[in-house]
Backbone:
RNA sequence: GGAGAGGUGGCAGAGCGGUUGAAUGCACUGGUCUUGAAAACCAGCAAGGGUUAAUAGCCCUUCGUGGGUUCAAAUCCCACCCUCUCCGCCA
């Protein structure tokens, strides 16, 4: 917290933290996060004392200065007044810097706090404890030996990992011809569906962002190692998801009540360093440094976010339904919910090549966590006072993984791929890729 | 890349060392007037923090961000970020 402005950059309501530190600790413990509420409160007590003292000195300085100004205006001798404030500045500076240090100490703790979980988040420590909410569609049944997307793509000559590694090393892909077009078709289909049927506004955003944008959405300061950045003096970061630029559209904004909700959809590439995921999904297109994604973002008034999360998740699901891909929706358990999220649904699509459901979308409500960091507010029509908005986002859906799902689920015995009905118009009427 | 101008309340826009947290206009809220509405007129109207039972008072902080000068900074100095104009280069 910045003591001068009182502005906090943490994600949990600072008042709640001070008044109900123990309750906060209980909530965070569900994630497996240990928050020493007693130590925090002790620090905060010291802060209060010091702050009152400092403000008292500031008040003295202000009234003295005012008196000097008035005396000067009347042409009186100000020398005795100046003498009276002689050491005030020094005492004040001392107090201010002590308070600043203490505030920094508190801020370091606050920065490290993940968001509060909603009550409906299931308990659990790892992804094994996630709870399946619903399933849709039949897993594809094959009368022949199933191939994974790598085999299918390489034998078609349209998916080239070696070519990519010559240029950029591991975790990149080169695609050609109908397969490259199929990914574009998926993206177009998703954008069209969300804009024309779900009321989203299509948005084009920068792929390079400044640091503060990432602090706003919560990737920073904690997850620096997951991101690519330039080595400029003021570096640009490559976006790990469109969530970052799109959500930051609400930064420093005070919405009028009738301007909400707002829904945006954007297609962007996403760049992730995938540090710490060595050995995971090293083959194929599942986990890349660069992938395409269509992202959905909602800005809603406080109190509307639970309904919005269900709505947003449904929008992502419809894409898979139209593509006739089997999937399931799981509620992430407390230990698996992301740092800034209050509640998350993952949508997992059936991949025959892996004989597994794999994540293709992650839909989260952040409640006021991101809004607090971004200073995104709306005017409460009843009180006339600004209050933090709620932000949500979800993939609708990840295009690279959707491409894998189509390749594997729509494969034929001869190695060709049928084009899903809803994509054929985007493929110039093509029905089979061979 | 070079040269200049600028960043002030929800918005527009004054102020350029001292009763300025900030003129004015728009928007918004309440009132007068009106059958109702509009117009006109009157009044109110920034945010965050501390203290507190309090959304009452009182106090602190905030004029892009961070430093500095000063008894005193929106106003002066430095750095950075951002915006605009012109020149160069370029898809």
Residues:
């Amino acid at each position: 917290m910045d003591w001068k402005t009182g502005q906090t950059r943490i994600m949990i309501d600072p008042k709640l933290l001070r008044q109900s530190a123990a309750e906060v600790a209980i909530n965070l413990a569900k994630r497996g996060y240990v928050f020493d509420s007693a130590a925090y409160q002790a620090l905060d007590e010291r802060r209060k004392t010091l702050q009152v003292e400092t403000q008292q000195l500031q008040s003295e300085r202000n009234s003295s200065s005012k008196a000097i100004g008035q005396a000067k205006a009347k042409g009186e001798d100000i020398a005795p007044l100046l003498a009276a404030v002689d050491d005030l500045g020094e005492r004040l500076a001392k107090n201010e810097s002590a308070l600043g240090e203490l505030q920094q100490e508190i801020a370091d703790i606050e920065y490290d706090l993940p968001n509060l979980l909603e009550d409906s988040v299931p308990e659990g420590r790892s992804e094994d404890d996630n709870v399946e909410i619903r399933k849709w569609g039949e897993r594809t049944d094959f009368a022949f030996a199933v191939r994974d997307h790598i085999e299918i793509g390489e034998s078609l000559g349209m998916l080239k990992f070696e070519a990519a590694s010559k240029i950029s090393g591991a975790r990149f892909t080169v695609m050609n011809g109908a397969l490259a077009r199929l990914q574009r078709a998926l993206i177009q289909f998703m954008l069209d569906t969300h804009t024309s049927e779900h009321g989203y506004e299509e948005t084009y955003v920068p792929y390079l962002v400044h640091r503060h944008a990432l602090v706003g959405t919560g990737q920073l300061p904690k997850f620096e190692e997951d991101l690519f950045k330039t080595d400029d003096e003021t570096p640009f970061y490559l976006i790990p998801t469109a969530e970052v630029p799109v959500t930051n559209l609400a930064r420093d904004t005070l919405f009028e009540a009738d301007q909400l909700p707002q829904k945006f959809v954007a297609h962007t590439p996403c760049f992730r360093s995938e540090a710490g995921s060595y050995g995971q999904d090293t083959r194929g297109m599942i986990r890349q440094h660069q992938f395409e994604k269509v992202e959905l973002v909602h800005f809603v008034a406080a109190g509307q976010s639970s309904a919005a999360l269900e709505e947003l998740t449904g929008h992502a699901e419809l894409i898979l339904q139209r593509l006739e891909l089997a999937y399931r929706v799981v509620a992430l358990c407390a230990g698996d919910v992301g740092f800034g999220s209050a509640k998350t649904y993952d949508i997992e699509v059936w991949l025959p090549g892996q004989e597994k459901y794999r994540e293709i979308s992650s839909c989260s409500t952040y409640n006021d966590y991101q809004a607090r960091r971004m200073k995104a507010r709306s005017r409460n029509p009843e009180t006339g006072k600004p209050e933090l908005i709620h932000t949500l986002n979800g993939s609708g859906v990840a295009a690279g993984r959707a491409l894998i799902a189509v390749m594997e689920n729509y494969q034929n015995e001869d190695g060709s791929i049928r084009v899903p009905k809803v994509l054929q118009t985007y493929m110039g009427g093509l029905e089979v890729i061979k």
About this structure: Residues 1-9 of chain A have pLDDT under 50 and may be disordered.
